[in-house]
Amino acid sequence: MSMDTKTLVDWVLGSDAGFWWRFAGVAAAWALPITLWVSLVGLISIWLERKISAHIQCRLGPMEVGPHGALQTIADGVKLLAKEDLIPDGADRMLFALAPILAFAGTFVSFAVIPFGPDLIITDLDTGLYFLAAIGSLEAIGVIAAGWASNNKWALFGSVRAATQVVCYEIPMGLAFVTVAAVAGTLSMTEIVEQQNGMLWNWYLFRNPFMPLAFISYYIASLAECKRAPFDLPEAESELVSGFHTEYSGMRFAIFFLAEYAAMYVVSALAVVLFLGGWYTGIAPVDKALAASPLWGNVVGALVIITKSFALIFVQMWLRWTLPRVRLDQMMHLCLKVMVPIGMFVLVFAALWQALLPYAGALNGREALYPTLGSVTGLVVFLVLVIGGWMWVRGVIRATTSYKTANYRT
Amino acid sequence: MDFQYANVLFGLLFGAGFVVLNVSIVNRILAPKVIDPEKTTTYECGEPTIGSAWVRFDMRFYTVALVFLVFEVEVALLFPWAAAYDTLTQAGGLFAFVEVLLFLVILGLGYVYVWRKGDLDWVKATDAQTSNETVGVDNAANGN
Description:
The structure holds two protein chains of two kinds. By secondary structure, chain A is mainly alpha-helical. Chain A has helices at 8-13, 19-56, 72-81, 93-108, 128-149, 153-184, 189-194, 211-225, 250-275, 284-292, 294-320, 328-356, 373-400. The longest helix of chain A has 38 residues, at 19-56. In chain B, 66% of the residues lie in helices and 0% in strands. Chains A and B meet through α2, α4, α5, α6 and α9 of A and α1, α2 and α3 of B.
């Protein structure tokens, strides 16, 4: 890693601070900004989810606590803190207590390599992307442990479903990671973002005609990794009570919930870093002006990356309240027979494009102020996929629902 | 710069600490503790619990895990290749690409074999079904 990339601690303390200062700095970085941010993400996205689901279903959602119910989640959190913590008689007590720790710590530690701005990253690992792919499985282990330790049939079903699902979707997700890494030539998160400097079409999403496919396949896989609808089989509340956390109550349940919402932010921020230009606004002169001032670069960068991530979180919630849940066999079919071949296809052709026409996409690190062959075709493919996918889903919904949607139109 | 991976370890410890603080300290202080044998029975929709949940479960999950293992090892092997791909291509042209293509083709053979064998389907078609119709997701409905 080059010495000029800085981390949060370097930025605050300066790079010549002594060992113990840096040690204290890292501890403080985890203790304050990250812990606060994880809690805040939980509070905001739980509130958002309730409001969005309500508005999609023509309801108002929480309205009582705070303006538009904005403090409802805090009230719920306080309630959960004061709830009795029950461990069922038949449970494996040690594993039962360990499971939420594994699930939460696994998600929490991902924030080590998730950047918030050019210097706002806890540690810019050389192997950042690989680290994320590996640590993502720790949450799955927590979920499996929770289901098994509960000694409850619903929880066991939920956890084996979770295991299957997470295991299946690691493959297309990993293939999408490898595709980005092959195009970027690095695994470091900061360097991946820096290569997307310049105008909007420098983002990896439009780098070549295969990247939009990689992005969409990553996004679908990330829904499954987060156990979000339409892949919410592990907690399918209408079939399995509430899946793997059936027996969890009080704060332990809240921890699973928080881990889940933090994971939503992690996968969205990762999508932003890998495909959507990270902290760059996509307007080259603005980015250039921001880069001149470390303070503004970091502050605006953080705002940009957070806005983009929440836009993706919004799409996750929108999908949840729009699509019905898939069956287990459909879930496996989609992953193993559709997304794995697509992932391999994308990897091979993106690598071929990179070898033959490396500068038909924007040159890494160079500011291409004009769209290139790669970005134009990438944009076309992206639009075709999104519009085609939307029309296909609409066609399926129209063909399979008994009532006429036209009646609900004004 | 100096302790990159120590940062990660810190994160794990803080994550675990956050859970322990909330669950074992704050919750323990604030929450009531009313002991009642009914409350700590395993939840089974209000019926008395029948037996343990630690039973044998479906063999198919095991097959999925096996298929996963192969592909995950593949992805893990591809990461170093991907990180070095740009450098390799600039130095040696299409060599790195052809190399990984060979790797993927060999893996693809295994993938085709598993697909033909029907292990990628949740409900595996019997020999009789396979000879009559294509193995597909639609069979799952009949199998259930």
